[in-house]
Design brief:
Strands 1, 2, 3, 4, 5, 6, 7, 8, 9, 10 and 11 form an eleven-stranded mixed sheet that branches. The relative contact order is 0.22. The protein is of the alpha+beta class. Helices cover 25% and strands 31% of the residues.
């Protein structure tokens, strides 16, 4: 059975975005920094981005990240998106498919998402990761990718928004790790640029819609079916992959001067996949 994020997971997320120890700075430009770090036992790097949006509030950005109707407007890489169901008012499961540059096949995901809003002077956070479900197998023409962790932390500062993003993903297929890592370093800033542009236009777009629903803020507006957590499962792990997961969990995420142990989000480790290079690229 899959698990949902709890307070410890959100604290872990904040530690990951705030503590730069063990990370390598790949890009520093204007208000944006891109960092990467290796994960023992895994060929794919973890990446994080810290940036400042000086003309966007965290509330607006939080809505943009949630709004499935608006995503169809601004996300040019999205091929399909479906709201599978809601576990509770702060946890849902969805399907997302995205295009990739030719000759790569499109990727798709089944994602469990959790979010937390600590108030107007606090922080807004989202965590998502891949899960499996028997009714949502890999689709023909797509390669089922794995998100071990995707997280956002939004903080308000004088009507500005400090955005922190961290991700650790495996695109699956037969892509060489060096290529994936190189592309990841460049796609992150593009995503941030697209997200900022979308946020700047969101309020005007939303005001022009006949339906002003925001179920992530107002649970009474939830229209998708309620689903049981027992229907979904974390990505299966072998013995070796459990060791990889332990290495991820042991990344230093403590920001205090006196180091202490920190319990991290229990990420599903790298799934063991039989790959057919000629069919999955």
């Amino acid at each position: 059975m899959a698990r949902i994020a709890d307070d410890t997971d959100f604290e872990m997320l904040k530690c990951l975005v705030d503590d730069n120890e063990g990370w390598s700075l790949e890009l520093s430009k204007a208000n944006t920094e891109v960092w990467t770090r290796s994960v023992a036992g895994c060929n794919f790097h973890m990446v994080k981005i810290n940036t400042l949006f000086d003309d966007i509030t965290s509330d607006t950005l939080f809505d943009v990240l949630h709004d499935p109707d608006y995503r169809r407007v601004w996300d040019t890489h999205m091929l399909a998106s479906e709201e599978i169901g809601i576990v509770n008012v702060n946890n849902d499961v969805g399907y997302y498919a995205m295009s990739c540059p030719p000759p790569l096949k499109p990727r798709d995901f089944v994602l469990m998402r959790s979010w937390l809003d600590t108030g107007p002077h606090g922080e807004q956070m989202l965590i998502s990761r891949s899960v499996t479900h028997r009714d949502w197998p890999p689709r023909k023409g797509y390669v089922r990718a794995t998100s071990h962790l995707t997280g956002f932390v939004l903080r308000s500062k004088n009507n500005k928004c400090i955005l922190s993003y961290v991700a650790h993903c495996d695109p699956q297929g037969a892509l060489p790790p060096w290529l994936v890592n190189k592309v990841t370093h460049t796609l992150g800033p593009r995503m941030i640029k697209d997200l900022k542009k979308a946020a700047l236009g969101y309020i005007e777009w939303k005001n022009g819609q006949g339906n002003f629903r925001k179920p992530w803020r107002f649970p009474e507006e939830i229209a998708v079916p309620r689903i049981s957590l027992s229907e979904f499962h974390d990505i299966e792990k072998t013995t070796e992959e459990n060791a990889t997961c332990e290495n991820i969990n042991n990344l230093n995420t403590d920001t205090s001067k006196e180091k202490k142990k920190t319990t991290m989000f229990k990420l599903p480790a790298i799934p063991k996949v039989t790959r057919k290079a000629q069919n999955q690229v």
